[in-house]
């Protein structure tokens, strides 16, 4: 999957062009980001959000892939100041949402409750993104979290080699091999 | 100031310079190869070649804010990528100015862009060399396909080009290694296109400088498709994998990195060049080197920049400027538009391995009986593949989302992108801009280049014909796209020191000799008289080999 296809598929799944990847169009010139913006507690929370989106099944999930740390690096290095503010504020809003939906903080929710909270956010984010007056305005914080989860997990070692298949040195090419339904996709 | 004497000096170590160094040393000359950037050793220097995605902090895809700040030009297109960032020029150290938007993507290091190139390798055809004469744009090429054919063969055999023989005049066959295979969808589409257009349009595997058999000391392609990071197997042609080791083997090559050539030294009495002046990029000192022969292979615009900076006491606009054409007739290939679609067939088929080339559809417009409201034509590159992930219901997260994204897509996608010929317009030019200086205090280039009506009309066909063919091949959901094109994005900059038959209208003669100074040769993209629509690098290789052969025979005859 090339870069453009990958961006397109994540955009399709999240209903918004991938945050940080639209630089080709807008030509952002914000100065470089400083030290990491997210705390260990933030990263732990993001790990649980990511794990709820892509949980451990018969293969490890997003938490095992350390998607929380990946998100921290990406938000610090690749997001604009405006986008950073949205996702940092979103970490707080997430708990507000968890409290109103499940009467406790997101970290204290059971897996089922977390799933419920994020499903509410899925709908809220869609409505929010569609209602934006200007497509260049930041998307909903949950959309950012989901995009980074999908991206981070499927480019991680466990995501690429356990959930997907990856052969660093294929050695040959065959464009007509049999495929049986259910077989894993190639990571690249 | 120190002065050292060589038989020949080659400026630039990319595709053309590497070939010049190889040919000249193999013909017995002592050669100094000057490279303005750092050395990158074959294999050892490819620092990211074996890294996996998760070993890059940003997974190799999204640029950091720092990268966007540091690379204002590179960020305009795909080259801005952390997996190859060290191979592109730092824009801020080497600026240029733009009267009209121009994307200039450069590689200043040993091997130049031969390390990052797309490796597509096609011969110009007989009509390409006659096109200017026939439709009156630019000047006539001083050479014809027959002059180039043996040299194409010569460089193909050494470089290693994989491809299929198709027997088409529009895209002459070469000396190929066994071709890589089209996948099941591409084969099906190729067959349906041939049928639908009654044999007037063709699609086959893209010919590329990836070796499919062991060759010299190189291991055949391992289908990793990470060529542009440098190949530890030597699976594709680059200066490092191919021409540089051959030149080194003669023990007659001296490679000097960090050597910015600031001018060709010209002797008014003998009317010949005596050598070059070098600014050392590290110690900022000036050195001179003498030689009987100078080959400028510094990349199209930089070779011309050197000429513009040379012999200004005699010609204010520089060496080779007497015709008034130096810096003019800039060309590139315009592209970034086409069509794509999908097929639900072949859902029981998949791919193995990552093939480093796609398919090619050679030009079919304005050939034989076809006549359009523009001149020249275009070809397509593209390919089919089966992506990842099947559709899920809205708002799905958790186990079912993960599972849906873990399997191949339920369809294959297929896309093609047009690459069109750009005409040589005199007013499309580069010039010295003395108001801006680079990191070394040298004047920079100004770009004043645009596409015109002919290209714009052609772009309509490039998009519509793509859709028409994919639909004729039975693909579904076919849609066109146009990502927008800025001149330079093709990374095929050509012209600015064109070859010709008349010193009054061209900079170089039919042997790539500067009309005004016969021991200086220019054999990179600067020499191009017209652009064709095919990727130009193979032509630079053949042109360079041909010119070195002429130069050495002239030298032996005492004519230089």
Structure description:
Chain A is mainly α and 188 residues long. Helix content of chain A is 56%, strand content 3%. In chain A, helix 3 packs across helix 4, helix 3 crosses helix 7 (141-154) and helix 5 (81-102) packs across helix 7 (141-154). The radius of gyration of chain A is 18 Å and the shape is globular. Chain B has 560 residues and is α/β, with parallel strands linked by helices. Chain B has helices at residues 15-26, 65-70, 126-135, 145-159, 184-196, 239-249, 300-308, 399-404, 453-472, 537-556, and strands at residues 3-11, 31-34, 97-98, 161-162, 176-177, 204-205, 253-256, 259-267, 272-280, 286-296, 337-343, 349-352, 359-361, 378-385, 412-420, 429-437, 443-448, 476-482, 513-514, 517-522. In chain B, strand 1 (3-11), helix 1 (15-26) and strand 2 form a beta-alpha-beta unit. The radius of gyration of chain B is 24 Å and the shape is globular. At the A-B interface, helix 1, helix 4, helix 6, helix 7 and helix 8 of A face helix 2, helix 5, strand 12 and helix 8 of B.
Counted by DSSP, the helix tally of chain A is: 8
Structural class of chain B: alpha/beta
Element order, helices and strands of chain B?
EHEHEHHEEHEHEEEEHEEEEHEEEHEEEH
Low-confidence stretches of chain B: none
Largest interface: A-B, 72 and 62 residues
Largest sheet of chain B: 8 strands, mixed
